[in-house]
């Protein structure tokens, strides 16, 4: 099961997310203006089903109704709204991209410790009055989201670096 999920992330989901992630970075000025984004828009004629996803942010926990159809996966809708899913197809939890970016940069400077980070975030949110229904698996889910967000960042950079290099060789 883990190997199949890894393949799905690596071969299907991450390549699909690259243009949406790039669009998001451009639209929000590198995540500075994330609040200006509206709800994820549906750009097809499918009848979507609504999937409820809990979003972990720095200062809140919110439930988001994500439109999902055959043309648009939950992961795409979540990334377009500034969050990253903890599972490739039917996530119940997503993490704000700014939280993941902070953790990604933090773990470049200290030893990675998903347990300490997710427990601290959960404790801070709890003292603010927010309750997570996913406490038992928060560490694993947060670790999953952080791992695949890192892959998305790296693959996105590699994609555009290759495109630029291709343009340089044609000039």
TrEMBL record:
Output the InterPro entries linked to this UniProt entry. Answer: CxC1
Annotated Pfam families: CxC1 (PF18802)
Q: Which domain of life is it from?
A: Eukaryota
Q: Where is the CxC1-like cysteine cluster associated with KDZ transposases domain?
A: 42-123
Protein name from the UniProt record: CxC1-like cysteine cluster associated with KDZ transposases domain-containing protein
Q: What organism does this protein naturally occur in?
A: Mycena albidolilacea
């Amino acid at each position: 099961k883990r190997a199949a999920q890894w393949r799905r992330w690596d071969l299907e989901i991450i390549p699909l997310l690259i243009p949406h992630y790039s669009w998001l970075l451009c639209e929000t000025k590198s995540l500075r203006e994330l609040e200006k984004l509206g709800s994820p828009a549906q750009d097809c004629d499918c009848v979507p089903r609504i999937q409820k996803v809990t979003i972990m942010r720095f200062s809140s926990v919110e439930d988001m109704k994500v439109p999902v159809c055959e043309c648009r996966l939950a992961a795409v809708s979540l990334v377009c709204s500034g969050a990253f899913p903890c599972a490739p197809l039917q996530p119940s939890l997503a993490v704000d991209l700014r939280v993941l970016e902070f953790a990604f940069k933090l773990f470049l400077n200290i030893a990675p410790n998903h347990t300490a980070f997710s427990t601290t975030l959960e404790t801070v949110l709890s003292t603010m009055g927010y309750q997570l229904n996913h406490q038992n698996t928060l560490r694993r889910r947060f670790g999953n989201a952080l791992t695949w967000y890192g892959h998305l960042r790296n693959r996105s950079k590699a994609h555009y670096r290759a495109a630029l290099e291709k343009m340089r060789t044609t000039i």
